Amino acid sequence: MNRDRVAAQRNQLARIVILALSGMLGVGGLCLTAWGAKAREVGRGWRVKAAAAPITAAPAAAIVVTKTADTDGTCQSGVNCSLREAIKAANAQAGDDTINFAAGVTGTINLGGPLPDLSTNIEINGPGANLLTVRRNTGGNYRIFNISGGMTVKISGLTISNGISPGNDGDDTDGGGIFNLGALTLSYCSISDSYAPFGGGIFNKGAMTISNSTISGNTAERYGGGILNDFFSSPTLTITNSTISGNQTFLYEGGGIYGSGTLRITNSTISGNTAGSRNTAGVGGGAA
Ligand SMILES: [Ca+2]
Known about the structure:
Blueprint: H1 3-25, E1 32-34, E2 37-42, E3 45-50, E4 63-65, H2 83-92, E5 97-101, E6 107-111, E7 122-125, E8 132-136, E9 145-147, E10 152-156, E11 159-161, E12 178-180, E13 183-187, E14 190-192, E15 195-198, E16 202-204, E17 207-211, E18 214-216, E19 219-223, E20 227-229, E21 236-240, E22 243-245, E23 248-249, E24 257-259, E25 262-266, E26 269-271
Parallel strand pairs: 4-5, 5-7, 6-8, 7-10, 8-11, 9-12, 10-13, 11-14, 12-16, 13-17, 14-18, 15-19, 16-20, 17-21, 18-22, 19-23, 20-24, 21-25, 22-26
Antiparallel strand pairs: 1-2, 2-3
Bound molecules: calcium ion.
């Protein structure tokens, strides 16, 4: 049986199905999709034509980081570009962005100051949490990543470490490693050794998904040593295949996670977290 005959039989079959549906629904001029072809009533007969490919804008080329040095100049993608310069370039250019790392960009990015907020839709694809760390080094107290409201951000394959929330008032007290106002997906990441009064590792005020990641060794003075899902803004947090361990609060609940809003945890380990001495609600050190 040749291809033309197969196609003819499929078209005939599509016609029968469509006619049957048209009859059932009593609808003429019905448009249905069958076997990837769009059938349309034309006059008294049927014509089957291939569906046109959707028209989409070409995605911007990925910005490629080439070094661990935290320089603050202009990114020459794939040639001479730091993570800081790549984020600046992504924020400055229209459209969604992707940041990749050239082969051999491994070890530690020691930051000399806060990175620009992630204020564009962006995907940052690290080489692996065991291969590349981004950490606060000099330049005062700051978080590692701030995700602006309304942005869709994906971060994978990085260790994010040693962040400290920048101040003692309002949102500045929230989130030592990451402060999320957008839609953030973290995968294959490690968030470690960070500090804030609220949400030592992560403070989530948006929509957040964490998978295949480790949140460890973070400290909050008050609530949510590892993660605080904000009290007031009804955030959503979904955690799968991850480990929340060795985090602590000095004072109140949620050594590992303090979960208000919507919190879903599946197939994850929450262990060895401790909550503070004024934990009068008697909630354990894990998820509160
Ligand atoms: Ca952009």
